[in-house]
Backbone:
């Protein structure tokens, strides 16, 4: 069994071996990732941000009944806030999503909720009801599971169609 004679060799060789091991491990993981991705350079948002789990419908229905709709900051990206509302007495039904600006104004018209109510003040100082807010793109909807969990589907039909088209045609960015 060879023995390292110098103090320098006994210090450097194990460190160099460790660095070499992690370099080989990193290259192997990179190779596996490249193989799994199929070399596709197209970017998608399929790994996150497309669904937002809110929680139990009965809990959030009570919160909204007591305090008014809930404003979620920038779930859609591009500084687009959304408002979650619930109407009716049945926690499984009556969920709605709105965009956080008035339907008759542009996205630049920010709203501020009047605490404890279903009303908002817009950029012009008008008092508006939650139903006066802009509707989200088609496909951006609340989903309620059989066990009472509320999830927000944040993928619009247009985005979903674009991702499906790219996947079907094999088009890549670049």
Residues:
């Amino acid at each position: 069994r060879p023995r390292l004679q110098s103090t320098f060799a006994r210090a450097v060789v194990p460190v160099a071996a460790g660095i070499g091991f992690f370099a080989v491990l990193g290259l192997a993981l990179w190779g596996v990732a490249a193989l799994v991705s199929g070399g596709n350079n197209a970017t998608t948002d399929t790994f996150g941000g497309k669904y937002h789990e809110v929680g139990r419908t009965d809990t959030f229905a009570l919160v909204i009944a007591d305090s008014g709709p809930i404003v979620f900051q920038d779930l859609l990206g591009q500084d687009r806030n959304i408002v979650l509302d619930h109407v009716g007495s049945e926690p499984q039904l009556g969920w709605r999503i709105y965009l956080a600006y008035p339907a008759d104004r542009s996205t630049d018209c920010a709203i501020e909720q009047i605490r404890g109510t279903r009303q908002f003040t817009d950029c012009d100082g008008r008092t508006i009801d939650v139903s006066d807010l802009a509707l989200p793109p088609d496909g951006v909807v609340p989903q309620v599971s059989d066990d009472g969990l509320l999830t927000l589907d944040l993928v619009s039909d247009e985005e979903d169609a674009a991702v499906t088209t790219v996947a079907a045609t094999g088009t890549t960015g670049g």
About this structure: The radius of gyration is 26 Å. DSSP finds three helices and nine strands in the chain.
